[in-house]
Design goal:
The chain is an alpha/beta fold. It folds into 2 domains: 7-136 and 241-320, Vaccinia Virus protein VP39 (Rossmann fold, 3-Layer(aba) Sandwich), CATH 3.40.50.150; 162-237, Orthogonal Bundle (DNA polymerase, domain 1). The protein is built from 14 helices and 7 strands. A 7-stranded mixed sheet has the order 3-2-1-4-5-7-6, with helices on both faces. It is globular and about 55 Å long. Residues 1-23 and 26-33 have low confidence and may be disordered. The structure holds S-adenosylmethionine. S-adenosylmethionine binds at residues 35, 37, 58-59, 61-65, 81-84, 87, 108-110, 130, 132-134, 157, 238, 243.
Length: 323
């Protein structure tokens, strides 16, 4: 899904060097599905443009990006956050060899400023947000993120969060449900889908939900008709738009001048929000006029990377901030 826009050319314009020591440990031994981190080289290169310091990986997941950052920049420490304790458990095991250069916390990225105050004893020179969900979460049998397997209607990143997909699907009014599907799923037929769901309640699980949506919309084209409905419900359950907005504002305030903010988005709602926030910021200089996308080679190796869009910005000195 390369849009003809050369990542190397962008890297050159950013003044970014190509790193030689980019390594990610293969950890796909055993029957577990694994998450392949996306745009790893591009992320590491963008962060390497800043001086050594602390990097906050706001979505550490299984630790793929963090591991590459630690290997490429021996002088940095990484503070890794994730709302999902099972993802953090995998990351902890994977990153054990890095000792106290990595500090992992089960917390939302909406608290990144507070985490930095407690855990960063050097200036914060990088913040990374790799939005969306990991392959492990998508393919889990009990998290309910995928329409391709039957699971309870859950979709929470944090197991202690109170709102579940079941609440949204089985308890929201038809009007509120339609709004969620339209606003967060960009489902143009949101009213039709919401009506079908309400008529068929109680919806018992993800397979049932996918069947109801398919019944309402029919099946045309390559994309499953329930894709947008599942995205919308997941974003509502996890308050994702508000969380991203908060994290971007906190990142801007937490970064030391010269520090870099790097965000990978996977759909247009996320990407629009990131693009607009970076563009309107008075203290961030946008480094990527157009988003960086995965190369054809990366997409061939990891189909899930095809929708990724990376944007980067640099924190300005207050004196150089845009007025
Ligand atoms: C695409 S995955 C990140 C994968 C990671 N970069 C890697 O290399 O393994 C996104 C991660 O963000 C986490 N997440 C979602 N919302 C979050 C939030 N509000 N705060 C912290 N982590 C969150 C998810 O649990 C998931 O592990």
């Amino acid at each position: 899904m390369c849009d003809g826009y050369s990542n190397n050319a962008i890297a050159q314009r950013l003044g970014i060097s190509v790193l030689e020591s980019l390594t990610v440990t293969p950890h796909n031994v055993g029957p577990q599905p694994v998450h392949t981190p996306v745009l790893v080289r591009e992320v590491v290169e963008a962060l390497a443009g800043a001086a050594a310091g602390a990097i906050i990986d706001c979505t550490v997941g299984e630790g793929g990006h963090t591991e590459a950052i630690l290997n490429a920049a021996p002088d940095c420490v990484v503070i890794g956050l994730d709302r999902d304790p099972s993802a953090l458990a995998t990351a902890t095991e994977r990153l054990a060899d890095h000792g106290d250069r990595v500090r992992l916390v089960n917390a939302s990225y909406t608290t990144l400023a507070e985490q930095a105050r407690f855990l960063a004893d050097v200036p914060v020179m990088g913040v990374l947000l790799d939005l969306g969900l990991s392959s492990l979460q998508l393919e889990s049998d009990d998290r309910g993120f995928s329409f391709q397997r039957d699971a309870p209607l859950d979709m929470r990143f944090g197991p202690d969060d109170s709102l579940t997909a079941d609440d949204v699907v089985n308890r929201y009014t038809e009007r509120d449900l339609a709004w969620v599907l339209y606003q967060f799923g960009e489902e143009r037929q949101s009213r039709r889908v919401a009506k079908a769901i309400v008529q068929r309640r109680l919806i018992r699980g993800t397979a049932h939900l996918a069947e109801v949506v398919q019944g309402a919309l029919g099946r045309r084209g390559r994309i499953h008709p329930a894709t947008r409905t599942f995205q919308g419900i997941r974003m509502e359950v996890n308050h994702e738009v508000d969380a991203i907005r908060t994290a971007l504002a906190e990142a801007e305030q937490t970064l030391h001048p010269g520090g870099r903010l790097v965000v990978i988005s996977y759909h247009s709602i996320e990407d629009r929000l990131v693009k607009t926030t970076l563009r309107e910021s008075r203290v961030l200089k946008v480094l990527t006029k157009k988003p960086i996308t995965p190369s054809a080679e990366e997409v061939a190796l990891n189909a899930r990377s095809r929708s990724a869009r990376m944007r980067a910005a640099e924190r300005l000195d207050e004196g150089n901030a845009f007025k």
